[in-house]
Design brief:
It is elongated and about 70 Å long. The protein is mainly alpha-helical and 49 residues long. Helices cover 35% and strands 0% of the residues.
């Protein structure tokens, strides 16, 4: 009988298992989302008088 190793989905991974290119793409995507929403981050309130 073949034994299988149980790996928890919530456990951190080892450095050898990381894909640096994928991490860089995720960071670039997050930067793009922040850049696209830059106008929404404006905290000034315009009051109609």
């Amino acid at each position: 009988m073949k034994e299988t190793k149980h790996i928890s989905a919530t456990a951190p991974i080892r450095n050898g298992e990381r894909y640096i290119l994928l991490d860089a793409l995720r960071g670039l995507a997050l930067f793009g989302i922040c850049l696209a929403n830059w106008g929404e981050f404006d905290v000034r309130i315009e009051l109609d008088e």
